[in-house]
Amino acid sequence: MNDNKTKPLRMTASSLDGRDFSNMDLENADFSFSSLKDINFDGANLRNAKLRFSALDRTTFRNADLRNADLSFSSLSDVDLSGAKVEGANFSFTSQERSFNWQDFSLIAIIQNQGWVGTLVAAILGAVILYGFNAIAYFTAELSFTEEPIRLAFYKYLVILNIATGVCTILVTQGLTTWLDMIIKSLLAKHIILSIIIFLSDSLLAIAVHYFFAADIVNQYVARYPSEPSQNAPWYWYAWAPVAIANVFYFLSREGRQISRKISDQEYQLLNLEKLKTRAELDALQARINPHFLYNSLNSIASLVHENPDKAEEMTLLLSKLFRYTTGRKTSDYFDTIENELEMVETYLQVEKVRFGDRLRFTVEVEEESLKNLQVPKFILQPIVENAIKHGVSRMADLGNIVVKIYEKDQWLHLCVHDNGPAFSDTLGAGYGMRSIQDKLKLLYGENARLELHNQPHKSVNIAIQKSAIEQHQQSNHAFSA
Fold it and tell me: What is the helix (H) or strand (E) element at residue 403, kind and residue range?
């Protein structure tokens, strides 16, 4: 065992499909470039392990320790990471669609690599770029300081020809990119066809410029400087540069689209994860509100069973009607119309009126009939009304009065609950019902909604939601709940 600690397991470029490594200590192990499909790593210690460029399709990492592991450039289709510790793990440029393919190499990722491959590629690119800039500087200096007219005319011809060739190369490459990607499947065939077309088009351009505009200039230069070494180079010597530029441009263009697609996919996945997270949190809030209310209602029924069985029966039937609201309506999981919310609140108040009798009076007011069609989060009013009963009416010997009022002001929808119970204390801490409403408003509307407690001019709890936020949620409600 001690040897395993001092010498980490090294199984690079291995075929290990279907093996069982569950609960093994594989810290610092190296499985780079290996085929690890259908492997069982459940509960394994893979901290700091290297799984780069590996095929990990259908591999399970349940409850595994993958902290600081390197899974870059690996295929992760149908991988099970439930319960795994992935803090610090590197999932850069991993694919969830297919096994690793050499075409997925990223030039940017290679350059960023601190190994010898990245250093070599960066050095070559740096040398080529520097060479090109120095050539530009040389010819610019020649044009600026050469006074001999024949040489000056020849250099101007070379500069114009190179500019025209460069423009032609990029335009032709850009024009062919979509066609090559649609028609040709093989990447090698794409580059070969592109090279042939660029070679022919740039050669035709050079011949046309030479014979129609620069034949005399070239002839005069050759006659004046017959011993120039550059004149011994064959014409095709200068054709490789545009071909190389075209292939690099095409490669970078494809890579840029792939990176953009990967970024878009990642953003889409993040949005889905955020939506799932929001839905999970809302589910938790909803699940906790319903039992909370049921607990209080059942206590009320229990207190009436022996004292007033008829009232207990009435209250039970009302409670049944109330819970049909939460389980029987074919509406969104999280939204319903104000009309339905008010129906549920009125049913709840009728349940409580059975208990309190003449000590409880309530009214429901809606400023405009059209407001009843707006959709708001489910159970947004019931916890507030319940608090008004619990902390207001139940503490009064006199008549308790609750007013639920819905109105619109300055493009904000206001859902207000007034009661004539004791005023809110300055040190009042928010109970679960209030916290659940605040959490729900924050999850669904962010800064476009607020919950306020007022003692003046009269005691009230006010929920304010921007009308535009409500309409936006109403439009996307079906997609959100799908």
Answer: strand 400-409
Residue 408: strand, helix, or coil: strand
Q: What is the mean pLDDT, run by run of 10 residues, along the chain of 482 residues?
A: 56 80 88 87 92 88 92 85 89 60 47 55 75 81 86 87 89 87 86 92 89 88 80 70 86 70 56 58 54 70 83 84 65 75 88 82 92 87 85 82 93 93 69 74 85 88 91 62 46
Fold of the domain spanning 1-102: Pectate Lyase C-like (2.160.20)
Q: Residue 279: enclosing H or E segment and its boundaries? A: helix 240-305
Instruction: With CA atoms as reference, report the closest residue to 206 among 242, 178, 175, 233.
Output: 242
Sign of CA pseudo-dihedral 215, 217, 223, 228: negative
For residue 431, count CB atoms less than 10 angstroms from its CB and return exposed for 0-12, middle for 13-18, buried for 19 or more: middle
Q: How many residues does the chain have?
A: 482
For residue 194, count other CB atoms closer than 10 A to its CB: 22
Q: Provide the H-helix boundaries in 404-466.
A: 432-445
pLDDT of residue 305: 84
The model carries a pTM of 0.43
Spans of all domains in the chain: 1-102, 111-264, 274-481
Tokens of 290: 């319903």
- In whole angstroms, what separates CA 280 from the centre of its chain? 17
CB atoms within 10 A of CB 390: 15
Q: Which tokens sit at 166? A: 């460069």
- Top-level CATH class of 274-481? alpha beta
